[in-house]
Amino acid sequence: MSAPSEDLPRPIDVFEAARTAGVVAGRVPLAAFERVRPSMPVLRGDLVFRFEGLTDARGRAAARLHYEATVPLTCDRCGTVVDVPLHGQASYYFVRSESELARIPVDDTDEEPLLGSARFDLMELLEDELILALPLSPRHPDCEPPGLPVVPDEAAAQPERPHPFASLAGFKGRRQ
Fold this sequence. Notes:
Blueprint: H1 14-20, E1 23-29, E2 46-55, E3 61-74, E4 81-95, H2 98-102, E5 111-115, H3 122-133, H4 154-157
Parallel strand pairs: 4-5
Antiparallel strand pairs: 1-2, 2-3, 3-4
């Protein structure tokens, strides 16, 4: 396999990587991930990854992925850029056919089954993991929305409103 590089990851043979305990490591510009690009207000930063082939305890072709990145996103509160640090790891095992993959029951184990091949798209896997790691609502830790007054006691600031059905009480005795 290869040492860390600035080149985009090429398709790999995951079965060969597992057999030889091959490692693919590198750095990918975040701008190279087409499905993530629209979420980023500025195109900067890299995803650093390490994909390690292995044979798991059950004798299956498998791999571990470690990654980290700082992704510039738009803060949901103030609308400015917030740099969100992401890091994670995932474990996979590979099957050789879609029918084999379809027969695998859904479970809650840490390893995810994937359809392996001699031309496995590592770049797509990296982008999938990056998308799954993105927060739903990115925010600065101490951010307040601009222009909203801070009210110390909300109950005191709210005028008392009548119950919406209070006027119906007078109709109760009239209908007979």
